[in-house]
Amino acid sequence: MPSPTEEVRAVWTSDQGSMAQQTAVTRWPKIVEGTVDDIDETAASSDKEKRAERAAMRIALQEIMHEIERNEPLKPLREDGVPGIGDFNKQLNGIGSCSWLDCPWLFAECYLYRRIQTIFNASKNWQGYDVFKRRKDSTFVTSRAAVEELASREEAQRLLFIEMTEIALWGNATDLSLLSHLSMEDLQDLQGQDAIQKNQKNIVDNDTDAVWAYLQCTPSPVDRHVDIVLDNAGFELFTDLIYAAYLLDSQIATSVQLHTKQFPWFVSDVVLTDVDSLFEHLGSAKCFPDREYLDRLVPRLRKFFECGAISTTSEPFWTTPYSFHEMPNRAPALFDQLQSSYLVIFKGDLNYRKLTKDGLWPYTTSFRETLGPLGKSRMKILALRTNKSDTCVGVESQVKVDALNAEAPGGAWVRNGRYAVISFHEGHC
Description:
Its EC number is 3.1.3.-. It is an enzyme of class 3 (hydrolase). The chain is an alpha/beta fold. Helices cover about 50% and strands about 10% of the residues. Strands 1-7-6-5-2-3-4 form a seven-stranded mixed sheet. Helix 2 packs antiparallel against helix 4.
């Protein structure tokens, strides 16, 4: 494994057979094409000024799609009046010559969504528009059965910590950018109690017992503040709110802060308006006609927000191209804040990739080692991630890795979203 002084190699979109390559070749053009379709649909029912800007925006978006398809070099981002462009261009300059299909995956994917955002930021009538909202809402509606099941079970009893953690974990299986091609039946197969029990054996790094031991053995301070760095909107956000409510009700946490993105990011990541949208859907009898449990649960969730027990925040650092190894230098105030947190829960694949620097570590490398500076800090980190990329660590032995490769050949267990990790680092005092 890499020594402390040796730089781990990041995943590149040119790596043959990698999820990075598949994403760049097939998913990115479809995501941009879907963005074009969305603004066309919105413009059709919009005012004259908004429609007038649509043509230029379509051209700019299609230019991105054609650049990807022709494997052109990545261009410096144009200033759009919003801070952060310099960070992208500085990192792009540091990488040197690279193209869409031959560049570090993590950087290029962040670059893609920031470039899309420059088109909206530079407009007059489309600023603040969430081009992915329509897709988020549509996918959440397909989760009706699972939402109603979780609402009824949360109302009936205080679930055990392990089960609640796994509910929050497998909610991440509904990442829109990866699973939008599935049918409603497929989505429901990924959610709910039966799926959780069936898939527990697929948690390839399971530190739940270590987390529970930390929560039970540490003193009970007056302030047990928990931070949750969110991933996807819709059903996963619903499971995150259920998880936050459980942590508060069980007095594991005295307050919970949810970290959202500042602008639409990676198709389905939570922006602040998605929280309001979630409550609108949960309150809709059209979306959720079975109101028996939701009409009791939703007011309880709202009350947590109203009294400040659950709050939201949006840090610019979450939408930069940097891995979290750069947090101490690039976002020192955020780093200090999270070090003082009782527990920091990172949701989803992108956060996991950024925690581990998207490195091609040996699968048996310890989670702590891959965290870099965060692994040497006081930050208590819990990563809940279903495996949808090329990076995975914390597997207990090479024997286990060999068994996984036999069970899911070609490294499918690292990429197909059917396997997961619950990885914990207790931090250093």
